[in-house]
Amino acid sequence: MADNNSNRIRKAIVSQDDFSVKKKFSQNFLLDENIIHKIIDSAKIDNTTCVIEIGPGLGALTKEIVKLAKSVIVYEIDEDLIPHLQRLIGSFKNLILLNKDILKANVEEDILNHFDGCERTVVISNLPYHITTPIIMKFLEELKNIDSMVLMMQLEVAQRITSKPNTKDYNALSVIIQHQTIAKYLFKVPKAVFYPQPNVDSAVIRLDIIKEVNQTDNTEFYNFVHKCFSQRRKTLVNNLANGYNKYAKDELIEILSKEKINPQTRAEVLGLEEFMKLYQNYFRES
Question: What pLDDT score was predicted for residue 81?
């Protein structure tokens, strides 16, 4: 864990660069070197790996990534952090530092412009809490050449994404992420290892992309999943009846019975394959 001396060092860096922490960017900078190395080990970076890092902050993780990777693209939205990052890692020839909002950036174009000869492409990030899901979905929906993502996020969100059916954390997000990835919870990160310290603990997960999933035909299926979970305490029949006018409730009961699903069950008991089968057989519009 970071001690008081580590905090003083980071504060001195911030002061030197005339920088103040900005809450609007959810800035909480990782300090602990052990956790930094655990993240890098989890990403399995070598000199054939290209890395995209989102939100490098003070660069504690970035300066270790550039030592190992073939090429690195770093996205930092806060222009006030750029001078510090340039001083810290600007001498590395394999680094491209971009002052861009990741949600607006054309990442596919940046990859084509700056990556060449990568055997694997990995995304690494200490994700901003307030836009964790939009960033993940952007990468899943827009990018074709990502192999895996090693991501730190709020503990509660990490538990949802990696949870299994019949658990309290399992929800629509769990199904949607696991439709396109193999999601694995790696380890918890206590709030004390950040500067400034957030109010909640974090966790690191790994998402290995399932290449066979059609990335262009998922919106309708995801809408179906959201409707199934729309009111968690209601039965699947009631949620589907509220979400779709094409079936009467007795027809929905018949459909679920035909699929060997208890009509009184709730969405959280179904696995991904059951959701996909229901959708493809009865709720797909085309």
Answer: 86
**Token digits of residue 62:** 């970035």
**Can you identify the CATH homologous superfamily of domain 219-283?**
rRNA adenine dimethylase, C-terminal domain (1.10.8.100)
Backbone angles phi, psi at 72, to 5 degrees: -135, 130
**Adjacent-strand bridge partners of 202:** 154, 189
d(CA 23, CA 205): 24
Q: How far apart are CA 139 and CA 141, in angstroms?
A: 6
Tell which CATH classification among 2.70.150.10, 3.40.630.30, 2.40.30.170, 3.40.50.150 matches the domain 4-209: 3.40.50.150
DSSP at 215: T
Q: Per-residue b/e over 138-154, b at no fewer than 16 CB within 10 Å?
A: bbbeebeebbbbbbbbb
Q: What are phi and psi of 116, to 5 degrees?
A: -150, 130
For the segment 184-209, the average pLDDT, to the nearest whole number, is 92
In the predicted structure, residue 263 carries a pLDDT above the cut 90: no
Place of tokens 């005339």: 18
Out of 5-19, 36-50, 114-128, least confident range: 5-19
- What letters, b where the CB count within 10 A reaches 16 and e where it falls short, cover 92-124? bebbebbebebeebebeebbeebbeebebbbbb
What is the phi-psi region of residue 153: left when phi exceeds 0, alpha when psi lies from -120 to 50, beta otherwise?
beta
Q: What single letter denotes the amino acid at residue 256? A: L
Residues in the chain: 286
CA–CA dist 52, 125 (Å, integer): 8
Q: Does the pTM of the predicted model rise above 0.85?
A: yes
pLDDT in tens, 40-49: 999 999 999 9
